């Protein structure tokens, strides 16, 4: 799959709870993003002049046809604050799809999707793909946030028949605590019964590190979609180095990831 740079038009900017917003974007002609798969990302930049030279990286939430795709974001810095203010008809420059993806849904294994905060998009995309393939019963979502407002797009998961387990730090929805508090018992249950499970996770680095420890202790296969600052998306700036095991001590999130096998990431 070849990445390309192209212009898109904002079709909708949906405000969600917890400060999240969902951008529905459309290109004038078919783009490579139509073939994107969960875990891949795009680089977006508005008409920001010289104030913000670098685009911002976003996981693809969905790519329903040849000209449309969507992203989910939250305003953390100046770039995302500007994107949050875009209106229908505004233009953005897009580069993508970029990066390595999660494995595809399969009938031979149950996929446990672990999302935290803005880590939801690639796992939401995966759940949608599983639903379209008739594999919703092979997918379970484990979704954590600070509070109830931090959990979005739950209606989609329910409509697709995806079993969803929630965790919030304040206990306002689901299990009180981090999402790993819901995941650990599920992994232990699978170990007791011999069920084949696989973990796919995306979220803040501390969450991913905790998920990695859980799966390595139990010998469960897992893939982590890392959140790193990516200024270029092409491996030119070398600003998104990830410590790994192997002949080379580092690989790059934008070109070698953002999805990595949990066993290869060199974290404590």
TrEMBL record:
Cofactor, free-text remark: Binds 1 FAD per subunit.
Gene Ontology molecular function terms on file: 2 iron, 2 sulfur cluster binding; flavin adenine dinucleotide binding; metal ion binding; oxidoreductase activity
Family matches, as InterPro entries: Cyt_c3_hydrogenase_gsu, Dihydroorotate_DH_ele_sf, Dihydroorotate_DH_Fe-S-bd, FAD-bd_FR_type, Flavoprot_Pyr_Nucl_cyt_Rdtase, FNR_nucleotide-bd, OxRdtase_FAD/NAD-bd, PyrK_electron_transfer
Keywords for this protein: 2Fe-2S, Electron transport, FAD, Flavoprotein, Iron, Iron-sulfur, Metal-binding, Transport
Binding locations of FAD: 56-59, 79-80
Keyword Iron assigned: yes
Sequence similarity: Belongs to the PyrK family.
Stated name of the protein: Dihydroorotate dehydrogenase electron transfer subunit
């Amino acid at each position: 799959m070849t990445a390309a740079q192209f212009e898109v038009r904002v079709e909708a900017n949906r405000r969600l709870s917890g400060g999240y917003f969902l951008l529905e974007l459309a290109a004038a002609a078919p783009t490579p993003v139509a073939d994107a798969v969960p875990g891949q990302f795009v680089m977006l930049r508005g008409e920001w002049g010289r104030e913000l030279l670098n685009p911002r990286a976003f996981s693809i939430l969905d790519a329903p046809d040849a000209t449309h795709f969507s992203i989910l974001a939250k305003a953390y810095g100046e770039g995302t604050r500007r994107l949050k203010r875009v209106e229908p008809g505004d233009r953005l420059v897009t580069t993508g799809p970029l990066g390595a993806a999660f494995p595809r849904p399969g009938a031979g294994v149950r996929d446990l999707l672990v999302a935290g905060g803005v880590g939801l998009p690639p796992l939401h995309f995966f759940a949608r793909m599983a639903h379209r393939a008739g594999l919703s019963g092979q997918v379970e979502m484990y979704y954590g946030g600070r509070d109830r407002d931090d959990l979005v797009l739950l209606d989609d998961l329910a409509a697709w028949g995806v079993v969803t387990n929630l965790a919030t730090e304040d206990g306002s929805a689901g299990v009180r605590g981090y999402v790993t508090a819901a995941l650990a018992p599920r992994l232990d249950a699978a170990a007791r019964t011999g069920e084949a499970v696989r973990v796919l996770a995306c979220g803040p680095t501390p969450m991913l590190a905790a998920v990695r420890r859980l799966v390595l202790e139990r010998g469960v296969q897992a893939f982590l979609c890392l959140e790193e600052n990516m200024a270029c998306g092409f491996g030119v700036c070398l600003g998104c180095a990830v410590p790994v095991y192997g002949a080379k001590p580092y690989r790059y999130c934008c070109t070698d990831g953002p999805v990595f096998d949990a066993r290869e990431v060199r974290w404590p």
